[in-house]
Amino acid sequence: MAQPRNRVRTPARNATTPSTADAVSAGEGAQTPRAGRRGQGFTVVDVARMAGVSPMSVSRALNAPEQVSPEILAKVQAAVERTGYVANRAAGSLASSRSRLIGAVLPSLAGSVFQDLVQSLVATLADADYQLLLGQSGYGVVKDDRFLDALISRRPDGIVLCGVTPSAEGVRRLRAARIPVVETWDMVVEPIDMVVGFSHERIAAAVAAHLQAQGRLAFAFAGGDHARGRRRGEAFRAALQPASRRRPPPVLLEAVPAPGTVLAGRLALRRILAQQPATDAVFCGSDMVALGMVTEAKALGLKVPERLAVIGFGDTSLAPNVSPALSTIRIDAAAIGRVAAHNLVRRSQGLAVEVPVIDVGFELVVRDTG
Amino acid sequence: MKKTDEPSRAGTKPFTITDVARLAGVSAMTVSRALNTPERVSPEMLARVREAVQRTNFVPNAMARGLRHSRARVIAALLPTLVGPVFQEMVEALDRAVHDRGYQLMIGQSGYDPAREEELLRAIVERRPDGIILAGVLRSENARRALRASGIPVVETWELTPTPVDMLVGFSHAAIGVAVVDFFHKLGHRCVGMVSGRDQRAQTRVDAFIERTKQLDMKSVPTAFTTSPSTMGAGRSGLAELLARSPRVSAVFCSSDMLALGASIEARERGVAVPSKLAIVGMGDQSFAADAAPPLTTVRIDGTRIGHVAASMLVDRVEGRPVDQPVVDVGFAIVERQST
After folding, report:
1. B56 contacts in A (CB within 8 Å)?
2. Less packed terminus of chain A by CB within 10 Å, N or C?
C-alpha cells in the first residue's frame, strides 16, 4: 500500500525569487510551487508580484492580450506558467452576474433511468463551457426544498428538474430568483417554465393496444412507488379497452420500490401471481424490473412470452442482450438532455427559446418478451 | 398566495438583498446580519427581515458569500462516466455526505479521455470549488501542477499511487488481478482468461493477472478487450471472442458485473454450463450480481465507503481540521456465489 506522503513543500505565496523559479523549471524532479496555506491558491496578486507588474496588467494580459505590450505579456505568461495559475472565474461571474453553472435535481443517480439524460446534459453543457451542479432529492414530490434552496443559493444560470416536482413554495422561490427552469421527463400539465419530455398517457395507450392486440386478458402494472409511477399505472388502467359486454379487463397495480432492481422485479411477479393468478401481461416501470420478472418467470416454469408477456421501460443497454430480449419502451434520454441543455444555455445568454415545451415522443420496441 | 401579495420587480432581474432591505425598511447590512447571525439583531428587526424574505422568496447568494469567505461550499467531482453502475455507489455516497455538511456537488465527466480531463479540470479550477474529488488518479503533469497551484484540496480515488496530488482513497488493481488468479488456481482451473475494459486501471489488472498466471504455470488466453466496459452486449461478444481463441478456457474474469452477466448469458446460449464448464467472476458487486441466475461471484469494491471517506477527508481539510490519514486503502473482497 502506498505510504502517506508529506504535504508538498510550499514556497511562500509571494515566491518571486529566481531560485524558486529555477527550481520549478529544472524539470522532472522539481516541485511545482504550491500555493500557500490551505484553501488559498495563487491569486492574481501573486502572479503580478512574480511578473513584476500590476494586478491590472495581469488581468488585462489574460483577458485582452492585445491591450498589453509584448514585453509585459511575456512576463505575465512566464509567471502564469511558473505558478500554474488558473484565472478565478467565480469572481468574474459575480461581476457579470453569470455563474456558468447549471443545476440539476433528480431523484437519484444510482441505478436510475436518468443516467443517460444527465450524461448528455453534462456533455452538452461542457461543450458550451457550463458546469453541472447536482442535487439528489430522493423519489416523489420533494417534501422539503433543501436541495432546491442549496442550488438556488449558488445562483446557477439555469435549473433542470428530472422527474422531480418541487413544492409550491419551491416553485415560488425559483420564480423569484428568475432562474430559467426546464422540467424534463414528464409532460407536466402546468409547467414552471420550459419542458422537454414525453407523455406517459400516450405510452400507456400504446402498450395497452399492443398487448390487447395479442389477445392478452389479465394485466398488471409494476411501477415505482412514487407519484409518477402511480400516474403511469392509472394511465395504463384507463387505456385498456373494455372487452365485450363492457366488462373492463382486470388490472393489478403493483408498487415496486424505486429505483427498480432485478430482485424487486422477481418479488413483484410473485406478489402479482399470488393476487391475480391469471395475469398474462405485465408492463414494468423499468428494464431492471422487467428483467427480474423474466428471471422469476423462468424459475417458476412460466414461458415468456407464451404464458406471460413482459414489457420494460427505458430500452437500456441490457434490453437487447438478455435472453429472451426485452420488449420495452425506448425514450431518447440523450436527446432530452441535449435539448434541455441547449434551451437553458440560450435562455441564460438572453436568447429566446422558440419552442419552450417539447414532446420528444417514444418508441415501442418489440423484441421477444411480448 | 394571491398575486398581489408577491412584490413585483420591474424587468426580469431577481430580487437582491437591497430589495429585501428596502421592503423591510432596514439597511442591507441589517438584512445580511439577520440572515447570517440572527442573534445579533433585535427580534423586531428579525421579524421584519423574515417577512420581507418570505414575500420576495429571496435565497441568499452563496457564491457572493463564498467569495468573501473564499468558500462557495461547492465540491467538484470529476468522473470518466456517469452511465453504468461502476462509480454510482461512490457518487451517491459522496453527494449525500457533502450535502449533509452543507456543500453542493459539481459534476464533470471526462469520458476516459486524458485531454478532455485536463480541459475539464481547468474549467473546474476556474470556478474555485472548495475541494475536488477525482475518480482515478491524475496522470497529466500539467493538470497536477494546476491543481497544486490552485491550493484546492484534492482527493484522488479508486486506485493507489505512490505520488498522489494530495489525498487518496483507493485500492490496488494489481492486487485484484493476482487475487482472482489465485482464486481460480485454488478451484483447479489451469486455462483462464479475461474480458476487460481498456482504461489504465483495467490494464493494471490485466497485466497483474497475466503475470500471476505465469508464476503459477497456468495458461492464460489473450484478453478480450471491450470498448464499452459496462454493457451486457460487450460481455457476450467478449466471451465469444475468448472461446474462439481457446475453447479450453475454463474460468473468466470480467472487469465489471455487467460484462460478467453478459458472459453468463452468452455461455447459456451456447450450452456451456456455468459453473461446471465455465467459471465467471465479475467486478463491482452491483445490486443485480446477487440476484442474477446463477448469482455472480464478484470482486466487491466498497464504493459507498470510498465516497464517505473521500467526502469527510475533503471537508475536514476545507474547514481547516487536520486529516490524520491522507492515504487510505479500502481494499476489496472476492464474494463467492454460484458462478464459480
Report:
1. 176
2. N
